[in-house]
């Protein structure tokens, strides 16, 4: 499938430093009192404003986070990325893996009291697939029958492979087996929508708390589209309201980590995100939590534009010249880790051994630091391509942390013989536009998983993928990716091996240069417990939280 760059979801400010939707290991508070406080409300920081509560149109981190807590889909993501039944109470799948039938609970209601039905899912998915809606996340529906034809305007959205068999039975037909289909269903793009409310407000739907329908644990209040603060209140119409302890969550936009830490220390926030300097100064503080996983920061090399970059030895030399351990520990100092490969750690596990995918697919030469070997490889690579001097421009976002990373990479690469690197920092949108059109030589970028499966990373580097901006192309690599999505889609073990082979091939061919795994480090009030963090899909498990005495 085609993916989207994490920057599109998070905005330039979150590309490196993380934020409310960054990825990591599941974690809960260390509070052990077990006795609930009378005031079941928390005060939380958001990195950016919520732009929309429209399920079909939300694509940024803050908006998606709010949708996780104000809407309910077929499944939720629980601890350790485990799917938890939400509106789906039972699922059956055809032998060929192409048809799913979901039995829905009959006791959930929209906040106006009307029942949530299978037709609400049908309406929602058709609306998202409709090209007139211009949904940035519509591509996640690509496996559903007739999706491409709907997107191309060849058939009406009503022909999408989803139907309501009855009020509480939803049937989905895929164009081919999709091994990770159930994981997708926990993502907000697949949540239901109340048709009458959407049509009532038209283009204004989802642009204020009053112009939105809710079927989840909380409803949103005090939000007018551009508000810097808002409140989530417990939804009395929600089917599992007895399982929700919190009564209110108060959010405020806090873009500056220093401001956030100050508010936390004054007890005006129960949680806030830290930057690298703060992490270094507070490393022994018990209230500090570190979350890693689900995203990789990497460098793409434009093989189409620069002849020398088509040479494997040149690409390997560029990778081996960069000390990723030093970058993470001494430069960033924010809990980030050196990568094991392109697919992040803490994302997916071996179906037989439960080993981390990143460890199973580890290729040492793809991420190791060896300056001596790098110099030897660069000399050989330049000679083979008839290149006397390699002058490269490194494009990056103009955020402070990204500039720091770019400067570090520049200094490392210029230790190589006859290599000069010039940095070009640009506003995020400009950088993204140039990246997507191949107007670069080297570029720093980030990817965060939409769901917990290696294909979410590996599909990016397939020949012709719109995110494969460096024009990497390898037939063997493509064959592994295709096998995982076709021949072996219904065989978890064979499919897993396909993906391991693909990752190993990508790194042995140095299709990209992974630089580090971003970390999000936060301060949490130790009286807040039950919080769940997932490494994919940007799910923040606030609904399980409680405040203890």
Structure description:
- Helices cover 28% and strands 19% of the residues.
- It is built from 18 helices and 22 strands.
- It has helices at residues 6-10, 61-70, 118-129, 147-151, 181-184, 195-201, 257-265, 276-281, 312-320, 324-332, 357-360, 364-367, 371-385, 400-413, 428-436, 455-458, 475-485, 492-508, and strands at 41-46, 75-77, 83-85, 88-93, 99-104, 162-166, 169-173, 218-221, 229-234, 248-253, 271-273, 288-292, 295-301, 390-397, 419-426, 442-448, 513-516, 519-524, 528-529, 532-533, 540-541, 546-547.
- Strand 4 (88-93) and strand 5 form a beta hairpin.
- Helix 9 packs antiparallel against helix 13 and helix 17 (475-485) runs antiparallel to helix 18.
- The protein is globular and about 70 Å long.
- It starts with 5 loop residues before the first helix and ends with a strand.
């Amino acid at each position: 499938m085609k993916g989207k760059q994490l920057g599109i979801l998070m905005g330039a400010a979150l590309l490196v430093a993380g934020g409310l939707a960054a990825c990591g290991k599941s974690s809960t508070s260390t509070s052990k009192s077990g006795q609930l406080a009378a005031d079941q409300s928390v005060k939380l920081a958001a990195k950016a404003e919520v732009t929309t509560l429209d399920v079909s149109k939300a694509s940024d981190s803050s908006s998606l986070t709010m949708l996780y807590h104000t809407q309910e889909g077929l499944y939720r993501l629980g601890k350790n990325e485990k799917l938890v039944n939400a509106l789906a109470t039972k699922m059956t799948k055809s032998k060929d893996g192409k048809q799913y039938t979901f039995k829905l609970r009959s006791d959930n209601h929209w906040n106006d009291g009307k029942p949530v039905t299978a037709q609400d899912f049908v309406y929602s998915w058709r609306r998202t697939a409709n090209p007139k809606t211009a949904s940035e996340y519509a591509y996640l529906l690509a496996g559903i029958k007739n999706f491409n034809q709907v997107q191309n305007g060849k058939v009406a959205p009503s022909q999408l492979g989803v139907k309501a068999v009855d009020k509480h039975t939803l049937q989905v037909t895929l164009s081919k087996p999709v091994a990770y289909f159930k994981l997708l269903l926990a993502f907000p793009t697949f949540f239901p929508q109340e048709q009458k409310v959407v049509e009532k407000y038209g283009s204004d739907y989802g642009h204020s708390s009053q112009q939105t329908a809710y079927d989840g644990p909380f409803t949103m209040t005090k939000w007018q589209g551009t508000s810097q603060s808002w409140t989530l209140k417990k939804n009395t119409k929600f089917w599992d309201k007895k399982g929700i302890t919190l009564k209110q969550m108060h959010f405020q936009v806090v873009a500056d980590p220093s401001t956030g830490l100050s508010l936390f220390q004054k007890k005006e926030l129960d949680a806030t995100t830290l930057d690298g300097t703060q992490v270094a100064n507070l490393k022994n503080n018990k209230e500090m939590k570190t979350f890693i996983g689900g995203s990789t920061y990497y460098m793409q090399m434009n093989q189409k534009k620069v002849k020398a970059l088509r040479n494997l030895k040149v690409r390997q030399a560029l990778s081996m010249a960069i000390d990723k351990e030093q970058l993470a520990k001494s430069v960033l100092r924010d809990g980030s880790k050196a990568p094991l490969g392109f697919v992040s750690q803490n994302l997916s596990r071996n179906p037989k051994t439960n080993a981390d995918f990143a460890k199973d697919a580890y290729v040492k030469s793809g991420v190791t630091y060896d300056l001596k070997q790098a110099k030897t490889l660069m000399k050989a690579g330049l000679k083979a391509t008839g290149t006397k001097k390699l002058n490269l421009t490194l494009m990056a976002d103009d955020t402070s942390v990204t500039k720091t990373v770019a400067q570090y990479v520049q200094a490392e690469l210029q230790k190589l013989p006859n290599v000069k690197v010039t940095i070009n920092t640009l506003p995020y949108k400009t950088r993204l536009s140039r990246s997507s059109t191949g107007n670069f030589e080297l570029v720093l970028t980030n990817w965060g998983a939409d769901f917990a499966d290696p294909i979410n990373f590996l599909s990016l580097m397939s020949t012709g993928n719109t995110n494969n901006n460096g024009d990497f192309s390898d037939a063997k690599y493509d064959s592994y990716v295709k096998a995982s999505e076709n021949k072996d889609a219904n065989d978890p073990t064979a499919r897993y091996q396909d993906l391991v082979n693909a990752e190993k091939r990508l790194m042995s061919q140095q299709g990209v240069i992974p630089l580090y795994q971003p970390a999000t480090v936060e301060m949490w009030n130790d009286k807040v417990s039950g919080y769940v963090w997932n490494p994919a899909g940007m799910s923040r498990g606030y609904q399980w939280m409680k405040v203890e005495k």
